[in-house]
Amino acid sequence: xxxxxxxxxxxxxxxxxxxxxxxxxxxxxxxxxxxxxxxxxxxxxxxxxxxxxxxxxxxxxxxxxxxxxxxxxxxxxxxxxxxxxxxxxxxxxxxxxxxxxxxxxxxxxxxxxxxxxxxxxxxxxxxxxxxxxxxxxxxxxxxxxxxxxxxxxxxxxxxxxxxxxxxxxxxxxxxxxxxxxxxxxxxxxxxxxxxxxx
Length: 198
Fold this sequence. Notes:
The protein is mostly helical and about 200 residues long. The protein contains seven helices and three strands; from the N terminus they run E-H-H-H-H-H-H-H-E-E. The protein has helices spanning about 20-25, 30-50, 55-65, 75-110, 115-125, 125-135, 145-160; strands at about 10-15, 175, 185. A hairpin with a 5-residue loop joins strand 2 and strand 3. Helix 4 (about 75-110) packs across helix 7. It starts with 9 loop residues before the first strand and ends in a 13-residue tail after the last strand.
C-alpha cells in the first residue's frame, strides 16, 4: 500500500451525558453486605453441622432461603446452626427490604430530574408516557408490574449515566487537540437546537 497515514491532531472524546455518580447512589452499603456475608457464614456452618442427617432436605431449604422448611434436626449442633441461619436470613430480609426501599427513593429522585425525563422521552416516547410518568405518580407498595417498571427505568438511567452514546443531548462529545500538549476543549457552550420538518 502506497498511501501514507498520519494521526490527526483533533480528536473526539465520547462520554456519557449524565453523571456516573447517580448510579453509585443505588449500590448496597457496607451494612447490607455484612448481613449478607453473615447469612453465607451461617449457611456454611449449617451445612457442615448436618453431616448426613437430612442433608438433601436441608440443602433444598437453604437454597430456597426458607427456614420454615428445615426438617426437624436431632443433632444439637445442627439445630443450633439452623436457628442461627434462620435468624441471619430474617435479618437479611429486613435489611434488604430497607435498602431496596431507599434505592427506590433515590431512583425516583433521579427520574424526577427534567433532563432524565427528556432523555427517556427522546429514547422512547411510549416508555415516557406509559412507564415513567405513571411510575412517578404511583404511591404505595410495588406489585410485580411496578417492580418491572422500576427495573426498566433503572436501565434507562444506567444507560444515560454509563454508556457512551452520541444520540441526542444525553450522549455528548468533547473535542480535543493533540500535539506538543494535549488539550480537551470543554469551554464551548452547549447549544440545543430543534429542527422541524414537514
